[in-house]
Amino acid sequence: MRQDSRLSRMLHVLIHMGQHDGAMTSDMIARMLDANPVVIRRTMAGLRENGYVRSEKGHGGGWTLARPLDELTLLDIHRAVGEPSIFALGPAYDMPGCPIEKAVNATLKDVFADAEQLLLKRFAGVTLADIARGFTSPSGTAKDERCAS
């Protein structure tokens, strides 16, 4: 099963935006993520609708943060990118009449729900500024020659 990387990719973008002077265009972001600018605009629109980024059209336009990194949590961004499934694991419904399959599925649903609530609670306690503090360069910025921003 393919992993959903929207959360990770948008955290990457937003932290770059927090370190970048001026707006970042969809093309700049797309090059950084090796993605299509249309996909970037669609994803960024969800962040804009939640008040996390702004967009300006025209020359010199692009995307900027609407809130500082210390006011954005992992949970905020997780929700803004559509609340992708936390787990790739799930119950099987191959034999709906089997009491063992029903018991397994009921247990898995409960365990996954508990684990998801714990993870979402942890997401709420981590800001993007917390992540950004973990990798600033000696000059105090997150600039890195491996990223194309």
TrEMBL record:
The keyword Transmembrane does not apply. Keywords: Plasmid. Pfam families: Rrf2 (PF02082). It comes from Rhizobium grahamii. One of its GO terms (cellular component) is cytosol. SUPFAM superfamilies: Winged helix' DNA-binding domain. This is Rrf2 family transcriptional regulator. GO terms for molecular function: DNA-binding transcription factor activity.
